[in-house]
Specification:
This protein has 246 residues and is an alpha/beta fold. It has one domain: NAD(P)-binding Rossmann-like Domain (Rossmann fold). The protein has eight helices and seven strands. The chain has a seven-stranded parallel beta sheet, with helices on both faces. Helix 1 runs parallel beside helix 2, helix 1 packs across helix 8 and helix 4 runs parallel beside helix 6. The radius of gyration is 17 Å and the shape is globular. The N and C termini lie close together (9 Å). The protein binds NADPH dihydro-nicotinamide-adenine-dinucleotide phosphate.
């Protein structure tokens, strides 16, 4: 589906939450989803970055987005419940979540991995997607065809030395995504899938691979076809998959 050509208006009338929408892949996804007609709820940590994306979407003439500052390393069930209430009162429905926010943590041997860093990475990369999904499922269940997309990584499929909590959290996301897909398959209209973005030119990529020439990897905009496909009605019936964006 990496050659998918999304028709204009693909996501008209859909409300989609994007986490980590202020930078990197999340920023590109928020803009691409809005450009195809979605009303995007921009969630992320740094307000100034979210505001910039908000302005870019507005300047493009796309549906007015909403903005939700949230720090996934400290938020708990109550914050996620409030977020669900806000979406319900503002829009009345929710048709998709792109769980994209993530942090790298340390690249270091497990033998010396810092426990506090471990906990923070697990909270942002694994606990937050679960709690956010729990809070938003009642809304998603009301949508005629909702889509949940989690973000994995090559180390979430096969953990490699030194990738620490990041790799373990992404292995967890693969499991969470499959389990949720299974649980919802026969009881809802919600499809659940994972995207592995592959090497993509972002701040996270640069810190993981400091010796790499950034020009040698794809830009976030280049990998958007799969995101659009999974969020739109053309992927109806596709669930429990872990797909590569390149
Ligand atoms: P970036 O570092 O560019 O962006 C990460 C986003 O997550 C930022 O918007 C950041 O917000 C947000 N974020 C981080 N921590 C928190 C937090 N505590 N609370 C709220 N938001 C937070 O990374 P990428 O765009 O590269 O990564 C996006 C996703 O893709 C991640 O899940 C990553 O693991 C995955 N991925 C990326 C690959 C790549 O090559 N780039 C390859 C494989 C997977 P802020 O800017 O405010 O810090």
């Amino acid at each position: 589906m990496n050659n998918y050509e999304a028709p204009p208006g693909l996501l008209a009338d859909r409300v989609i939450l994007v986490t980590g929408a202020g930078d990197g892949i999340g920023r590109a996804a928020a803009k691409a989803l809005a450009a195809h007609g979605a009303t995007v709820v921009l969630a992320g940590r740094t307000l100034a970055k979210l505001e910039k994306v908000y302005d870019e979407i507005e300047a493009n003439g796309d549906p007015q987005p909403a903005l939700v500052p949230v720090d996934f390393s400290i938020a708990g069930p109550e914050e996620y419940r409030q977020l669900a209430d806000t979406i319900e009162s503002e829009f009345g429905h929710l048709d998709g979540i792109l769980h994209n926010a993530g942090m790298l943590g340390d690249i270091t041997p497990l033998e010396m991995y810092d426990p506090d860093t471990w906990d923070t990475v697990m909270k942002v990369n694994l606990r937050a997607p679960l709690l956010l999904t729990q809070a938003l499922l009642p809304l998603l269940k009301q949508s005629p065809d909702a889509s949940i997309v989690f973000t994995t990584s090559s180390v979430g499929r096969r953990a490699r030395a030194f990738w620490g909590a990041y790799a373990v959290s992404k292995c967890g996301i693969e499991g969470l995504s499959r389990m949720l897909a299974d649980e919802l398959m026969n009881t809802s209209n919600i499809r659940v899938n994972c995207i592995n973005p592959g090497a993509t030119r972002t701040t996270m990529r640069a810190s993981a691979y400091p010796g790499e020439d950034p020009a040698s990897v794809k830009q976030p905009d280049d990998i958007m076809p799969l995101y659009l496909y999974l969020m739109g009605p053309d992927s109806l019936g596709v669930t429990g998959q872990s797909l590569d964006a390149q």
